[in-house]
Specification:
Order of helices and strands: HHHHH
Low-confidence stretches: none
Helix content: over 70%
Number of helices: 5
Radius of gyration: 17 Å
Number of strands: 0
Distance between the termini: 56 Å
Mean pLDDT: 94
Strand content: under 5%
Amino acid sequence: MADKNLETLFHETLKDIYYAERKILSALRKMARAAQSEDLKTAFKTHEEETQTQVERLSQVFELIGKRPRGKTCDAIEGIIAEGEDIMEEFKGSPALDAGLLAAAQAVEHYEITRYGTLKAWAQVLGMDEAASLLDQTLQEESATDEKLTGLAESVINAAAATGQEAA
């Protein structure tokens, strides 16, 4: 059990979020194509670019701990993405589609926020200051994306879905 320590847990969780981010990249492309609102399409495309940078940042963290970047299947993100795909299928062409896509995207963001917050805290405790800084950059971006999505939902998307109209 000597190898079952916080450093091992950190590495395993890093592999989890690395896998998740790479899955999220392809999901964002699909969600951008499915979105009806131009604002939502733009938000997904912008976050796709940001996510690519986050994957690169994760590679840096792997490098800092002397490990090769590789993922480990993340059942949580698989489930969240599957729910988003169900929404795309079930609500295609519906005014509620964008509200559902936005909700699915926020579920992803909340998962990422918990993972990055945990990894940052562990990196700090383990004395991995540079890794903690890189993880904090991503944590701040994920929180900002969540806030932007909330603003979009509250200002346009949810009202359009409630009235049965497509958002602009």
